[in-house]
Fold this sequence. Notes:
The chain has 112 residues and is an alpha/beta fold. It contains five helices and five strands; from the N terminus they run H-E-H-E-H-E-H-E-E-H. The chain has helices spanning 2-8, 31-43, 56-66, 76-81, 102-109, and strands at 20-24, 48-50, 70-74, 83-88, 94-98. A five-stranded mixed β-sheet has the order 2-1-3-4-5, sandwiched between helices. Residues 19-108 form the Anticodon-binding domain. InterPro entries: Anticodon-bd (IPR004154), Anticodon-bd_dom_sf (IPR036621).
Amino acid sequence: MMEQVLKDRNQTTRPTETQVLLNILGDKTKLSLAAELASEMWNAKLKAEYIASTRFSKHIDCAKESRIPWMVLVGEKELEKAIVKIKNLETTVEEEVPRSTFVDELRRWLSL
């Protein structure tokens, strides 16, 4: 019913409430890192999820399909520099932030 009301107003609902998709680039041996980062976001009341796939395209496809607006990217370079990349998937703006403050940055960008 709500979908019909929104459709009548030319608005759409998102398929998910997820705000952030976590993407650990590289091999699946970094699942513990994914769990750690996801836990930090969940503890901050962010709606985040992680997909266990090494293919970046799968993460992008999932985010677009579900209309998830933000992505956190962590690869080898980011691990070495102790940073994460935060990307707004609607504007494609991407910023590197310290790993230690990424949750605060996400909350600021999400206006929480």
